[in-house]
Structures are given as structure tokens and as C-alpha cells.
């Protein structure tokens, strides 16, 4: 176990520069937003009737965050697909964003070929690899970026590129209306939060450290709603990959129709389960009132829970708030577990076996 209050110990242990990447989330957002503003877009993307975001793993997280964040702001449906095949309805009237951090993701390459064959409006987001070559060969508008603000070079720590990149292209294609001022304010607020969650702030004043300590040696069950579901999905994934810990995610109000009846057995599970409720004053009133009642049900089943309330001003800011919180909590939990926060040995093993 690494002392999460010792910058020196953490620096020695974190050989993959994960902490540096987490700190640079606002810089990633700033870089992607500025760079995409000057890039060409699909010629008729503003006329598209729907949007599909195709990606896997860390490269899909940005799409999930956008998907849950902006339903009321988008003029057409926006959907995320993490499969080998895109939906049948993708055609020349569809804007499809092909997102792969490495550019070599098997499923996403398959999606690209299908979208190309259907004459869809394609925009690519990648750092290189086979997809970068395919984008160039087929004259596909794309954002092939230098991940200079992600020294770990792990997709899950480059979320700023994905989220800001997707937001920027959707704004350029007139699917949503996002002002430069809104993004700039987000960047400012994320920088402040990064300092609040950073290593030099002790656990009694650091909510990220406090949460990590409370969920250590438990199974964290994340609960979120509406605009924060995508960020909570990212949080859950990072607990899996970064902290090498099991975690799951449920949403309110959906869980109120089934999960509460599943808390009784097996009795031994009660000792390990630990609910983390992610609250927000920007949830719908009908959703807000369900949180304390759900917590009451969890408590009556003798299961531990804790809560975090998003504090920032807008839904976009709160989405970034939960992203940065999840990154720090997962990093500290990895240190407490004595686990390398960068490596993903079983994912690598799986990919190697597929070859």
C-alpha cells in the first residue's frame, strides 16, 4: 500500500505518469476545443438527421458522457454503439463519429468500413494507427491529435480529448449550441477541482481521498442519473481498470423498479457492498426526491452507503466534475490496493489471445 498523502512515495510508484495525465484533463479539453475549430467537417453534416458515435472502452466513454449530457440540447438523436456492426439505419443522412484513441481498435475499424460503404457523413477522432491511415486515404475529415497532455498514453486518461472533440464537432455541425465562453468556464472550474483533489491536500479536506479510503476493500455500487450517468460510467470503468477493483453502476429512477428487492441475499454480500450516490441539484425534481428514499432502503438492508453532491453551476461542468473525481478516486484506490494504476494486464492478455 502506498501512502496517498506522500507525494514522494506516489512519484516513485506512479511510473506510468497517471497522476500527470489526470491533472491535465483541463489542458486536454482546451487543446481539443481549439484545434477542432480550424478543421474541415463532413460537407453536409449540418443536414444529417441523426448522430452515431462508434468506439470501444475508453474511446467510447466520451460518447457516453455526451449522450447522457445533452439530450435536451441536441436537435436530433445521439447514440453510442460499442459493437462490430453499426445499426442498419446508418446511411447518407447520418453523422457518424469514429473514435479510437489508438486507431487500431478492431471493432471500430469494422464500423468505419460499414459507414464508408453506406456513404455516411464520417468524422474521425484518433491519435494515429490504422484508422488515421484510412481517414487520410479516403479523405475523411478527422481530428488526428497529438496526445501531449496525456503522458500516460492510456485512453481512459485522455477523456478530455474525446469529450471536447465530440462536443466541438457536434457544435461545428450545428447539432448543439456550445459557446467558447462555456468551455472556458468549464476549464477554469476543472482546474480548481484538480487542485482540491490533488496529492498535497490531506484526506480530511480531500473528498477524492476520503471516498477512496471508504470504498477500499468493498464493492462500490455507483448510483447516478440523467446528465451524470455518462460520467458515472467513466468513474465505474476507472475503478475497474485503474484500481483493479470490481464496481457496478445503476441509475435512478430505473433501479427503484428492481434493484431494491435484490439487496437481501446473499447475506454475505451486505458486508462488501458499498453504495456511492452521486447527487445533483440539477436533476429533475422527481429524480431528486428519490435519492433520500433509496438511501433509506439501502440503510434498512444493513448496507453501507456514502454520497457525493456535484457542486458546479451547469450540467456540463458537473459532468466534468464527476469525471475528474472518478479519476482521482480510482488513482488513490489503486495506490491503497498497491496496484499499478496504468497497467491493464488482463485486457492485454485477452487481446493477445485474440491474435
TrEMBL record:
Domain of life of the organism encoding this protein: Bacteria
Any one biological process term the GO annotation gives: carbohydrate derivative metabolic process
Any GO MF annotation of the entry: mannose-6-phosphate isomerase activity
InterPro entries on file: Glu6P/Mann6P_isomerase_C (IPR019490), SIS_dom (IPR001347), SIS_dom_sf (IPR046348)
Pfam families hit by this protein: bact-PGI_C
Keywords (A to Z) from UniProt: Isomerase
Domain SIS, chain residue ranges per copy: 41-182
Residue ranges of the TM segments: none
Family: Belongs to the PGI/PMI family.
Protein name: SIS domain-containing protein
The organism's taxonomic lineage, starting at the top: Bacteria, Candidatus Woeseibacteriota
